[in-house]
From TrEMBL:
Single Gene Ontology MF annotation: beta-tubulin binding
UniProt-listed GO biological process terms: post-chaperonin tubulin folding pathway; tubulin complex assembly
Alphabetized Pfam families for the sequence: ARM_TBCD_2nd
Tubulin-folding cofactor D ARM repeats domain: residues covered: 2-86
Name the UniProt record assigns to this protein: Tubulin-folding cofactor D ARM repeats domain-containing protein
Length: 252
């Protein structure tokens, strides 16, 4: 049974009072998952029909059952409904963390620009999410996830730059745990060394800068990762030669 068909079947059971109240505890978690359902189909997202059916099921339950039976699940369902319907409610602190996490888990792969807007509302949370969740996904072998994470990282860092400017603070101070961000970026730059010559040249420059970073841990991890990556590259001589020629031409 598909997600869409399952939701509609549960709707009919609820509307006709055929779903026993003691079954609600097993049905409602399924309904919450269906409200957030989103899968990649080719180069586009599918799931709107499932989310619509889940909202229909929520309506059917609210119409058919006494509010006291649904009371234990109200807060959990409210979060899912809010995420499904609107994003501007992020101004309310009780919903903001759930919206941010939803964007990171589900919408980054669709290059959602809402992360940029969320950063202004809660920069502290976004700094942590950037270093622990978004940047590590930039090297994911799934192209859509890596691409979306790279774009999301750029959006969040751009917003953090603006936050620092608005509060007249230095960007490193605004980024907070700067070493973690730098370490997270090492894997990305090493991964990009496998790209074309232009990408290789830009990535190697960033890695060389990290090798002389003021944080010892950043230098050590960069050296290790770069060494391991260079060992696995089959032919880097053309890229290095072009990079050296480019450097000589700039000096002259």
């Amino acid at each position: 049974m598909t997600w869409h068909g399952g939701c509609l079947a549960l709707v009919e059971l609820a509307r006709h009072g055929l779903m026993l109240p003691q079954r609600l505890s097993s049905v409602l978690p399924f309904m919450e998952q269906a409200m957030l359902y989103d899968e990649l189909g080719g180069n586009f997202s599918v799931g709107s029909a499932v989310r619509d059916a889940a909202c229909y099921l929520c309506w059917a339950l609210a119409r058919s059952y006494d509010p006291s039976l649904l009371q234990p699940f109200v807060h959990q369902l409210a979060k899912a409904l809010v995420i499904t319907t609107v994003l501007f409610v992020a101004q309310y602190e009780e919903y903001r963390p759930h919206l941010i996490q939803h964007l990171v888990d589900r919408k980054v792969i669709h290059w959602d620009t809402a992360l940029h807007q969320m950063t202004f509302l809660d920069p502290e949370s976004m700094k942590l999410i950037l270093s622990t969740q978004i940047l590590p996904r930039c090297t994911n072998p799934e192209l859509y996830l890596g691409h979306g994470s790279i774009l999301a990282s750029g959006k969040v860092i751009s917003a953090l730059c603006q936050v620092a400017k608005d509060h007249q603070r230095r960007l490193p101070d605004e980024l907070g745990q700067l070493p973690l961000l730098l370490i997270s970026s090492v894997d990305l730059y090493c991964h990009l060394l496998r790209g074309d010559q232009v990408t290789f040249a830009k990535s190697i420059i960033h890695l060389l800068n990290l090798l002389v970073n003021r944080f010892p841990r950043v230098r050590k991890i960069t050296a290790t990762k770069l060494y391991e990556t260079l060992l696995t590259l089959t032919d880097i001589s053309p890229s290095l030669a072009n990079h050296q020629d480019h450097g000589h031409s700039q000096r002259h």
